[in-house]
Amino acid sequence: MDYDNEEYDQVDILRRTTYLLIQSGFQAHQRGYRYLREAIAIVYDSPDMISSVTKMLYPEIAKMYDTTDKQVERAIRNTIETAWLRGNADVLESLFGEKYYDNRPTNSEVIQTYVNKLLA
Questions:
Q1: Which residue range is the domain that position 102 belongs to?
Q2: Count of the separate structural domains present in the chain
Q3: Is pLDDT at 13 greater than 70 in this prediction?
C-alpha cells in the first residue's frame, strides 16, 4: 500500500476504533455506530472538538453524511443505549467503571473514553 503517514494513521485509527466498538458490543449496522466512529476519529485528531460537540463536531459529521446535527446526536445516543442494553458488560465496565452501573454516559463521555483508550 502506498499511504503517506497521515493517511495511514487515519486508517489505523479507524481500524482500532472499529475493533474497540465491536469488542464493546456496539452494533455496526446502526447508523449511529458510523457517526460515533467518525466522532472518535475526529476528536482523536482534534482534541479541542470535544469541548464543542454540538456546535462543531455533530455539524461536521452531519455534513459528511448529508444529514442534520440533531439526527447525528440522536443516532449516537440510540447506539449507546443499545450497547448498554446488549453490549459486552465486561468490556464496558472496564472502560467506564462505576459509570457503567450508575447511568449511561453522555455522547461526549463515550467519545472521550474511546479517544483516551486509543491514546493509551
A1: 30-119
A2: 1
A3: yes
